[in-house]
Amino acid sequence: MNNPLILDTHIDIRWPEPPDWLTQTDRCVDLPKMREGGMSAAVFIAYVAQGPRDHVGHAAAAARAEAMLRHIRDRADGTTARFCATPDEVEAAFAAGVPAVLSAVENGYAMGHDLGRIALWRRLGAIYLTLTHDGHNALSDSARPRKNLGDAEEEHGGLTALGRAAIAEMNRVGLMLDCAHVSKAGMMQACEVSRAPVAVTHTACAALNAHPRNLDDEQLDALRACGGVAQITAVASFLKPAPPNGAAQATVADLVDHVDHAVRRIGLDHVGISSDFDGGGGVQGWMHAGETAAITAELARRGYGPREIGLLWSGNFLRVWRQVLRHMT
After folding, report:
1. Which domains does the chain have, with CATH numbers?
2. Closest CA to 49 of 23, 15, 97, 21
3. How crowded is residue 236: how many other Cβ atoms within 10 Å of its Cβ?
4. 229 FRET partner, CA 20 to 30 A, in 8, 65, 203, 220?
5. Tens digits of per-residue pLDDT, 263-304?
6. What does the pLDDT look like over 48-77, one tens digit per residue?
7. How far is CA 302 from the centre of its chain?
8. Which residue, 117, 103, 104, is CA-closest to 162?
9. pTM of the model
10. Quick count: other Cβ atoms within 10 Å of Cβ 326?
11. Distance CA 187, CA 169 (A)
């Protein structure tokens, strides 16, 4: 079959000293590995860990996120790789045989209380904002509270008023809303509040593994209802429970089991795939970008055809992204 446009929606980078990604590195994703595995496009993440919710903490987080966004944009020279900020640009890069570089911000903590940063991040090329990371912030409760930061199990009951205002601003400027890491209450409320479809860029199915970061069937149903997409990711602990005194071990087949469950529950049009490489992702058979073809092969083995595989790898995410841009005001 023709090679699909393979878009990996969540890849971390080393910071503050990222290696030269144009060469072979010790990272899971660099340009040689992308080419080897047929990965057409990659969303690199400006990740900010949760910290103190004060002016100093928020200012440092914003500075870090924006420096990372500028770096990600600058790592693509337009010839070897292209920086892309719209679906049309991604598809044009794919048609030209040039890998596409995209960016996003992980953790609305970097926003602090300044809604103006959302438009700034979009101008810098970011395509989505992950509302929280581990730990509650000023926008929403997190699926995994940080007890070392003084978090209660639940603080806001889901979204805050600021979080709702942030979603409205994201809708206005065309920045996709990512509810990975968000508490169930926050995620369900976001699906109701957002005028545009919601994405969950790196997750798995709680029906197969009851991990706090996974989506239960009610959450999957909410994504379908809002027109969104769940990106099943290659984090072993999301896919399989860890044995006593050991780390979870998962395979490509385990990842596709979660894809199968989500497809059966909410339909093919609302499911995608991501790696979370260099942020904890990697399963036996898909440990780096150079092994990406193993996922396609497993999907084909299970009866997914070229059209379905294309939708899972990029088509569904691009459809959600286009709808987000159409909802801009």
Report:
1. 7-326 (3.20.20.140)
2. 15
3. 20
4. 65
5. 999 999 999 999 999 999 999 999 999 999 999 999 999 999
6. 999 999 999 999 999 999 999 999 999 998
7. 25
8. 117
9. 0.98
10. 9
11. 17
